[in-house]
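Check out a protein:
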Amino acid sequence: MTVVKNFLVLFVLIAFTAISCKDDPVTPTPTTGNLSLNLSGLEDLGSDYAYEGWLIVNGSPVSAGIFTVDASGNLSESSFEIDLDDLDNATAYVLTIEPSPDNDPAPSSVHILGGDFSGKSASLSVGHGSAIGDDFSSSTGTYILATPTDGGMTTDENSGVWWLDPTAGPGAGLSLPTLPNGWQYEGWVVIDGTPVTTGKFTSVDEADDDAPFSGTAASGPPFPGEDLLMNAPAGLTFPTDLAGRTVVISVEPQPDNSAAPFLLKPLVGNVPSSATDHTPYNMDNNSGATNPTGTVSR
């Protein structure tokens, strides 16, 4: 009887264990994790472009989500589900500007933010080596008002701006870092709230790429700048007087689908209301106010 009783007890224990195991399913190992963005200072790119994040995994880029930004700077999405192995093995994060829609699976050359992971997060900046590579905090600018393309007329000299230093020979009026592929500089004059381009450039001691408003009587100097003498945009009249206006140097993505300055405006100058032509005026460094920043967490 003792043997039979012990056998029955053992049988009951085995059956109970089997039932218990059947009712307690094994939790599957997760294969994805969450990537969270906390970014500020980005702007609406319009309908033709979007932002895309990239994780650098074993030296190669892995897409980490596409999002847009509204007029208030709010991200359309700030949390992305990412393959856990990629998330754990990522050494850096890079944010690019991409066409929308985009048929190319590789990142564009327009890298705006980047940062290295330290533990679970990465601090992002334009100065990171995988982004623009400089934060523009050391950039300086000097400009004069003049209209050299008008053939020597002296009645409209305050209707042109040139980024040159007349005391240096003349020499370059701008000290700016060399930009990586995907970026270029652009000069601007803001007249009654309307930004007017003075041309795009990559070199501070060469003429910029266009002169739609300059005169035709003479050539301009070999520096960025523009005379505002003809072909005025709607609502404006050229020649004008730039005293009391604002001049800006922006950093623009290539290609550029906007007629307004991009969010990066490292140099801004408020032209004195008493400004006189051929007098050098200095610009203020504005990089701290316009550089986007943020963090990414995994």
